[in-house]
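Weekly puzzle thread! Below is a chain. First person to post its structure in token form gets bragging rights.
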Amino acid sequence: MYKSCYTPSENWISRFRRSDCDPKGNMLSSMIDLRREGKNSFMKYTSILAFLAFAACAHAATLVFDDFSGASIDTGKWSTILPSAGASILQGGGVLTTSGRAILATASEYPTPYLIAGSFTMLNDLEHFKIATRTDLSASSFSERAGILFAFSNDGNQISIQRYTSAADWSLLALASFTLTTGETYSFDILDTGNQVMLAVNGVELLSAASTYSTGGHIAFYSREFSGSSTSIDQVSISSVSDEASTGMLLAFSLILVLGVARKK
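Winning reply:
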């Protein structure tokens, strides 16, 4: 019997953040709670519930954490790539700012599955911000990095997941409209299991896709546009997750399908 953290009066997001819960039992009771609230709540939250149940209750081990409060970049955690004369990476004021396609990359490679979390603020109206996973950091077209890309388009008001090798060899895995505002801070959670990826923004918006594509084990953050465009990031963490948690994720998505069909009847 799985242990649940379910308390009817407790906010469902904070419920998932508790460290003493079992992801499977907590997820089951919370999905039942949402079904009681009605169709709109159920359809809006079941997929993100599965994501947060998996992410927050997987008892992950932290691989990297940085709040960028130091005077300089921690070279034990990060390496930098400046692909052009206009590229820059600056740390100050408790944030790290990447400009002109400058790349902040993990100093080490990490195997999947892992969870990446943090926040970003796009500082220019035409900015595109990207997070790359499963990358060897080799340069590709327009200073992109080959791997799985999580893209945030400020001028297009879109978020997407891409499989990228070059401008001539890439595919769009998932796409959604999402209003982005210059100067506003957004939180993100990325789950990469090695064959499936998921993206949550502000704990609400969710994209998911299946792909085993990989060129390496680095994780990178970068401004996608040339000089004059930049993004600040903060509170970045990378955590490993267990095989048991991966099993919980599969159970979660199976339940979504079953309960979703039942709701339509």
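Puzzle host: Confirmed. Bonus trivia for everyone else. The chain has two domains: 12-59+245-264, 61-241.
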